[in-house]
Write a structure and sequence with these properties.
Length: 114
């Protein structure tokens, strides 16, 4: 099973976008933690609960990026059965550009093109 250049480019764009989302969310969590702990001065329980309210959605964003990374890496390695799952998951969770490139590219499966 082999992906053509367009499908590979879409996978690379999706992987890079997903990594940027993960890095950005981790940086926001660190910024929230530092600013909350610096400005707390006696209100630690309240500040930590507010920090949890902001950190949980960012952790959810990080968790939903994992399937995109796994599926796109499988397509690049040639071990995926189809490119459709990687393309749809990439469109939903990461962005339109990488997913559309994946779906427009060809992924040859035992001599047959999908």
């Amino acid at each position: 099973m082999k992906a053509d250049g367009l499908c590979k480019a879409g996978c690379i764009v999706a992987i890079i976008s997903s990594c940027l989302f993960i890095f950005g969310c981790l940086m926001f969590i660190v910024i929230f933690m530092v600013s909350a702990l610096v400005s707390s001065k006696g209100y630690e329980p309240v500040v930590l609960s507010i920090l949890a309210i902001y950190a949980i959605p960012l952790l959810v964003v990080i968790i939903v990026q994992i399937p995109t990374l796994v599926l796109c890496s499988k397509v690049l390695k040639g071990t995926a059965k189809s490119k459709n799952a990687a393309g749809v998951v990439s469109i939903i969770f990461t962005g339109v550009l990488g997913g559309v490139l994946i779906l427009c590219g060809n992924y040859q499966n035992n001599g047959n093109e999908e």
